[in-house]
């Protein structure tokens, strides 16, 4: 695998933006963020979900601020989070009435670490300029960064009409999708230029231009990245549910990240009924980690299984080990230096089992059909013990726990 240094050295250079203690862009590691789906007015539920997203590894959490009651709830959410020791920065998502809410509820503005505004939803005509100015002046007043987040579902219609007219009268008119992409980029860049004119510093601006098509997203961000040095928030909007949402987001983001584009990412997954909102955080982390850009949790390599395995035991073991390391990581992360770089392997038979297990820090090769019912364990490439019987899962977890305690230095304090 190419080293992380080589990959990161190819990253697009961008102006760094401090969001509380988190830096976006300016050479900082790509930041993982997420968004709640609770009613912000429900302080208890929103606090709980923000904390859950932060525990999963979200480094910023965005909440909707869509009404006076939601704005009033924000300081309480911040306070409750601080009370439980969760200091994840909160980002307020404003549409239509953000100028009013931020002016009328200064404690809301102060409690947030960043404001997200959408130039397509700021207002129309003359009001648009006034309301945009109010939003930017509020950010300047409280020294808050802003994400100017353009979305093709809510594109500034006046700007779109203007660009369509310019295109129609050009000697070389382009097709409608080109015009749409150009309108998204123009909206973001012109809004950022206007924000700077009003007084917001360049290092307080993050841009995004979200669309729901993979190829469109890649084209838009390549162009946006080439035309400015603002920090970029990357995400496929309305990615969808389940594997479709994950695959589409991964396809789009991994190409752009590989090209060095993107300073913070959010995966917009629709949770399945009863599903955890934290899944979007896990997917974001897995994209960055599998690409070698960051490390968050030990990776578990597992074979897919085939006709050589007659039971689902090894699948259950792989799942249980994956769940175990994610759970333990909450504690390990605080206690051990570098444990996120550990690799584990859970394999189904002798064909690739020993080989893959030897490549991992700790690996286990379970017996396939017809093989003797034993499971050799490899630690740093050496076979150390052979497990058998009904307690293999617990014994393997203990071996992993011992490995962590022995191999990774304790953090100071
Ligand atoms: S390691 Fe064995 S069980 Fe797993 S996919 Fe390969 S042949 Fe099948």
UniProtKB/TrEMBL annotation:
Keyword 4Fe-4S attached: yes
GO biological process: isopentenyl diphosphate biosynthetic process, methylerythritol 4-phosphate pathway; terpenoid biosynthetic process
Keyword terms of this UniProt record: 4Fe-4S, Iron, Iron-sulfur, Isoprene biosynthesis, Metal-binding, Oxidoreductase
Broad class of enzyme this protein falls into: oxidoreductase
One GO molecular-function entry: 4-hydroxy-3-methylbut-2-en-1-yl diphosphate synthase activity (ferredoxin)
Pathways per UniProt: Isoprenoid biosynthesis; isopentenyl diphosphate biosynthesis via DXP pathway; isopentenyl diphosphate from 1-deoxy-D-xylulose 5-phosphate: step 5/6
Domain of life according to the entry: Bacteria
Residue ranges of domain IspG C-terminal in the record: 300-401
Residues annotated as domain IspG TIM-barrel: 17-284
Cofactor(s) needed: [4Fe-4S] cluster
Record family assignment: Belongs to the IspG family.
Function of the molecule: Converts 2C-methyl-D-erythritol 2,4-cyclodiphosphate (ME-2,4cPP) into 1-hydroxy-2-methyl-2-(E)-butenyl 4-diphosphate.
Full protein name: 4-hydroxy-3-methylbut-2-en-1-yl diphosphate synthase (flavodoxin)
Gene: ispG
């Amino acid at each position: 695998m190419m080293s992380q240094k080589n990959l990161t050295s190819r990253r697009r250079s961008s102006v760094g933006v401090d969001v509380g203690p988190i830096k976006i862009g300016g050479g900082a590691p790509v930041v993982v963020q997420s968004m709640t789906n609770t009613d912000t007015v429900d302080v208890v539920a929103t606090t709980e979900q923000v904390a859950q997203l932060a525990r999963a590894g979200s480094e910023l959490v965005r909440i909707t601020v869509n009404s006076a009651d939601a704005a009033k709830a924000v300081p309480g959410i911040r306070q409750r989070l601080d009370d439980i020791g969760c200091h994840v920065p909160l980002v307020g998502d404003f549409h239509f009435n953000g100028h009013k809410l931020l002016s009328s509820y200064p404690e809301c503005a102060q409690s947030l670490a960043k404001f997200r505004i959408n130039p397509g939803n700021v207002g129309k005509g003359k009001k648009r300029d006034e309301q945009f100015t109010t939003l930017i002046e509020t950010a300047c007043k409280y020294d808050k960064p802003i994400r100017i987040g353009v979305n093709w579902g809510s594109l500034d219609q006046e700007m779109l009409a203007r660009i369509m007219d310019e295109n129609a009268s050009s000697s070389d008119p382009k097709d409608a999708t080109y015009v749409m992409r150009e309108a998204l980029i123009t909206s973001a860049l012109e809004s950022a230029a206007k924000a700077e004119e009003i007084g917001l510093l360049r290092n307080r601006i993050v841009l995004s231009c979200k669309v729901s098509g993979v190829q469109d997203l890649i084209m838009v961000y390549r162009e946006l990245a080439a035309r400015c040095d603002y920090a970029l928030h990357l995400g496929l909007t309305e990615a969808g549910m389940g594997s479709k949402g994950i695959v589409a987001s991964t396809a789009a983001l991994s190409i752009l990240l590989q090209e060095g584009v993107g300073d913070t990412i959010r995966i917009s997954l629709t949770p399945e009924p009863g599903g955890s909102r934290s899944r979007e955080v896990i997917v974001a982390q897995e994209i960055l980690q599998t690409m070698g850009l960051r490390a968050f949790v030990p990776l578990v390599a597992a074979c897919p299984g085939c006709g050589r395995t007659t039971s689902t035991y090894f699948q259950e073991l792989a799942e249980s080990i994956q769940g175990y390391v994610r759970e333990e990581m909450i504690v390990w992360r605080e206690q051990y230096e570098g444990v996120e770089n550990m690799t584990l392997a859970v394999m189904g038979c002798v064909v690739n089992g020993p080989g893959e297990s030897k490549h991992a820090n700790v690996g286990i090769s379970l017996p396939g059909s017809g093989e003797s019912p034993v499971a050799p364990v490899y630690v740093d490439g050496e076979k150390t013990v052979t497990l058998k019987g009904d307690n293999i899962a617990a014994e393997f977890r203990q071996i992993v726990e011992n490995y962590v305690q022995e191999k990774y230095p304790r953090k100071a304090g």
